[in-house]
Amino acid sequence: xxxxxxxxxxxxxxxxxxxxxxxxxxxxxxxxxxxxxxxxxxxxxxxxxxxxxxxxxxxxxxxxxxxxxxxxxxxxxxxxxxxxxxxxxxxxxxxxxxxxxxxxxxxxxxxxxxxxxxxxxxxxxxxxxxxxxxxxxxxxxxxxxxxx
Amino acid sequence: xxxxxxxxxxxxxxxxxxxxxxxxxxxxxxxxxxxxxxxxxxxxxxxxxxxxxxxxxxxxxxxxxxxxxxxxxxxxxxxxxxxxxxxxxxxxxxxxxxxxxxxxxxxxxxxxxxxxxxxxxxxxxxxxxxxxxxxxxxxxxxxxxxxxxxxxxxxxxxxxxxxxxxxxxxxxxxxxxxxxxxxxxxxxxxxxxxxxxxxxxxxxxxxxxxxxxxxxxxx
Lengths: 148, 219
Prior knowledge:
- The complex is a heterodimer.
- In chain A, 65% of the residues lie in helices and 2% in strands.
- By secondary structure, chain A is mostly helical.
- Chain A has one domain (4-45, 63-147).
- In chain A, helix 2 crosses helix 3 and helix 6 packs across helix 7.
- Helix content of chain B is 4%, strand content 42%.
- Chain B has a six-stranded antiparallel barrel with strand order 1-2-3-6-5-4. In chain B, strands 7-8-9-12-11-10 form a six-stranded antiparallel barrel.
- The radius of gyration of chain B is 16 Å and the shape is globular.
- Chain B has two domains: 6-92, Beta Barrel (Thrombin, subunit H); 113-216, Trypsin-like serine proteases (Thrombin, subunit H), CATH 2.40.10.10.
- Chain B is built from two helices and twelve strands.
- Chain B has helices spanning 40-43, 212-216, and strands at residues 10-17, 20-29, 35-39, 50-54, 72-82, 87-92, 113-118, 130-144, 147-154, 166-169, 175-183, 206-210.
- Chain A binds chain B through residues 20-23, 25-26, 29-30, 33-34, 43-58, 60-61, 63, 113-115, 117-118, and chain B through 15, 22-25, 39, 41-42, 44-48, 77-86, 122-123, 142-147, 149, 151, 158-163, 179-187, 198, 200-201, 207, 216-217, 219.
- Strand 1 of chain A pairs antiparallel with strand 11 of chain B.
């Protein structure tokens, strides 16, 4: 059985390494530009080719990084909303980062209206970011931001 | 050049809604069983209620009945997506595939003849598989959030619903790219819409991304 603290003992970049090759390469290229995880996550969810009008037949809805952070915060805080999902993740005997990223993406995606495979790089980036400062510090930061 | 059986390869995408199936755009079968590709923006990163609509025609060059409202569809799931290249791979539970060989824009020349197939005006509910023939007008790099990717300009006008259309080289019939939209300056003082059409898109500068980025998603 794993504990949430066990998730954050790895090198931050190892979360990105866990992504499928085509996503890992893109995320790494974005990181080279900004050197900032939050900018990379924002670029992933708001990507749009410059000076181009896209020809899908329906209007595109944008998802905001803050909404994803809100859901991840609830999950990592073991909020009652994610009670079953937290138990499901904790059942694993060891931390396999690809499995963790896929599982959390799958748990959060129905609440965010996007597919888990789209969400996975954002979750990996956020987990990398959290690893840098520690999960309790990240959760405290989130609470402080809301009070402000 | 004739492609009578292309209706088995190029299909429209839709989403099941309480009022029926809304058309989203174009998708086409890859040479990987059960896998289709479309533009990421077409599916809006969401596969809830996503369906591939099967074409009922027997030959692309027969009449397509625009009054037909009955459709047959297959449920689809997003399996790979990259918003930076605007490419999405979707999977259906049927082991069908095309014989399209994937290449890209490196080996093609400006002025080369191409064919594309898609569903223009799908935003108005129109589902007509349409062939367009044109030539490559320019090879360009487009910046998406700091990353430059290979595109071409196609000298033809396109409309909503055509995103996800395959671009096929007439030279060797390989898949060289996928239509994603058209040029529209974003630094002008805002766009206007007349009858649902942005006048800034009334030109023959359609843009397509290189198919090499599709191949990269299977490495």
